[in-house]
Amino acid sequence: MAKILIAGLESWLKPALAQGLPGSSLVTLPGPDASIVEAAPESADLLILNHNFAAPATPEFLARLRQTLPEIPVIYCLDPDAQGKLVRRLIIELKVSEIIFHPVDAGALIQKVAALLQLPCGPMPGIAGEDGSIASHSVLKARLADLWKRSRAKMLERVEVLEMAGAALLEGTLEPALRSRAEGEAHKLAGSLGTFGLHAATGFAREIEHALRSDSLLAETQAHRFSELAAALRAEIERARDLEGGEPPCECVRCPLLLVTSDAELAAGIIEQAAARGWRCDAASDLAEARAAISGLNPAAALVDIGSLGRREDAVAFLGELSNLQPPLPALILTSGGNLMDRVEVVRAGGRGFFPRTLPPAEIVEAALAALDRLFSPSARVLAVDDDPAVLDLLAALLGPAGISCTGLSDPLCFWEALEGAPPDLLILDIQMPSVSGIELCRAMRNDPRWAATPVIFLTALTDSRSVESVFNSGADDFVAKPIVGPELITRIMNRLERTRLLRNAAEADPLSGLANRLKFRRVFADFLRLADRHGQPMGLALLRVDELSGINEAHGAAAGDEVVRQLGSHLRHEFRSEEIAARRAANDFAVGLYGLDRPGSVRRVDEVLHTFSERRFTGASAEDFRVTLSGGVAAYPEDAAGLDGLLRAAAEARLRASESGGGRLLTASAAYESRGGVRLIDLAIVTSDEATVSVLLHILQPDGYRVRALRHGLAAARALCGPDRTLRPRVMLIDLELPGIDGLTLLGQLAGEDALEHSRVIALSSAATRPEAALALDLGAEDYIARPVDLPVLAARLRRALESPEPQSSMVRRQAAAGNPGREPASPRY
Known about the structure:
Blueprint: E1 3-7, H1 13-20, E2 25-28, H2 34-39, E3 46-50, H3 58-68, E4 74-78, H4 84-93, E5 98-101, H5 106-117, E6 127-128, E7 134-135, H6 138-171, H7 176-192, H8 199-213, H9 220-239, E8 254-260, H10 264-276, E9 279-284, H11 287-297, E10 301-305, H12 312-324, E11 331-335, H13 342-349, E12 351-356, H14 361-375, E13 380-385, H15 389-399, E14 404-409, H16 415-421, E15 426-429, H17 438-446, E16 456-460, H18 465-473, E17 478-481, H19 486-508, H20 518-535, E18 539-546, H21 549-556, H22 558-575, E19 580-586, E20 589-595, H23 599-614, E21 618-619, E22 625-626, E23 630-637, H24 644-660, E24 666-668, E25 675-676, E26 679-687, H25 691-701, E27 708-711, H26 714-721, E28 728-736, H27 744-753, E29 761-766, H28 771-779, E30 784-787, H29 792-804, H30 811-820
Parallel strand pairs: 1-2, 1-3, 3-4, 4-5, 8-9, 8-10, 10-11, 11-12, 13-14, 13-15, 15-16, 16-17, 23-24, 26-27, 26-28, 28-29, 29-30
Antiparallel strand pairs: 6-7, 18-20, 18-23, 19-20, 21-22, 25-26
């Protein structure tokens, strides 16, 4: 019977240990004084010591105890914020066998004890902690069982190498190459078998590894012992044919998506397309059915066809219900694109994104899943480097349920490419690997300023003092001994990631207002702009400033001015959520990004927020009350600019005019440009989703003073160029016939039908110069047709000539000319 000493553990852990280690004797040490040290039973097999037992002098207590029990294995429970030098002392000087960081997981502790003493583990049902929470092991066991089925054959292949080495050893023909290969296979077995509960097999593999390193291996007794160990190792692996754990959770169908629409045809198409992508989608035809489905399905998100659900007020109220659930249920909105002012109410109620319902079902599903990826992206990215693929598979299986994305790399020579291709939040390294060791990788990474702060955890079967010292000297933050214990590894990773998150938040947040800072705002707003491009959505940008902030500081005190900024930050954080971002870019420079809202919607949304803030009262240094007003400027994408810098300039100009006109006003950027009847007059509209074409043409034409706008989506172009609410009237349009959303020919048809080409010259662009397509584009009103591939500087010169040409003939004249000569040949494409 194993005798286990317990010093300072929480009371609820002892019955858990008794249940998980049947047949063991648990002896609790009552206190840390000298008499307890002297009275400690010398026959004890293991000590579990909590740092709080005699903190901060617990290491000294252990040093005294070592005089009585010099060889006893010790598991030390330590606070995650402990300094690295204490960890080094515990392992190197005080010979601690294992360190477990708080909060202590009962299952991890039981498996550590069983591995050190080579004891069988008893059943470990969900164990209640001090807070009453239940730690269920069923999912983890199922994943391990599934992984074992896939890894068992590989484990037996490694045993075959050991058996070959044993046979050669008995015959006296063991070559260095086979010996080295066998040592590597034994090392991998020792590091992975214990994770599956095969603790005896782990001991056999570790003894084989040590024997292969020993100079006495060639002795006859050692040769026979080697063969016996290899046979015992095979027997243990074959005996564990199927680990208990039941069926692993199904991963082929992901969390359900709830579609709320009364359009049966649309629902059928979306359900079919979602299933093709591995998602289960259930449909509700009205709000009552949707409420019942939510309680039963627990969906990941709701895709709401808001225009098909009767009264708008009821639909908006339903979105508010979803937002108030705990946790909130994300709502993605299908819209017909009619009255965009309604988007303000939808955003306020908790809508997370807008998608045109006129898109094909495949594109709707693709857009919705992309939005869900943003909402439910992994909490962290981990890069694991280990030459054993079984360990990499195991890490992915363990970390996935915790919301951590784990990328495995089995070739350390590809380390830098993987690091730069997808920068991780945390790195897991093995010590022993071919070509280059984990120690060398860690040292090289710490010498690069880009990765100097990335947390590094070593995962290794080498726990001797020399190896541990090398790990910490290389710059590592922590190490975990193999075999891997899932809960302990996840806890250690989460602790490191939380520290990194706090540091990153401190670097990306303004300390006074609590808002994002300038750098974070640029990064997030750029992401939103890319989404707006992809899905043909508008985007608003508002720049705000507190009127006379310096005067407030002088009249009411600096503390009062700071309080204004602090409350404004809190107000903006509360009001702008989901697909919006608020930031403090400078002392009196606040910015708000609004995805999915056009200029009128952005103005309405921001104006409401500023109005409620202007009603607040503040108290000055002399206990006097005062109020504040704000001035702001709003710019809209894509009408006012094609990128963030252009939007910032346009919004800043509008904000300056608002301040100069007396403050307390919100103006739009449109008033700063020539306009006619509310429609902006520009020189060139580039309508294409080809980013290279857009970038080159903007770079060439904008420095010449041309007012150029880029529209990367067919729906965005139709909204800006067509209809009674159009916002742009360009002199020249370059229209790609292959557009997302609606194609260029359809867009041309809409423009021609509304006489929007009366004073605009159109050049059509396509990748194929087919006669019917060219003729149709010309009949619809295009003046020219250009086929790819095309030299972009040449295309820019062609556009410049069009911009410098006289006013084009009216579309009516062009159509009449085309009708009078229906059999004409299409113009030759120009390059």
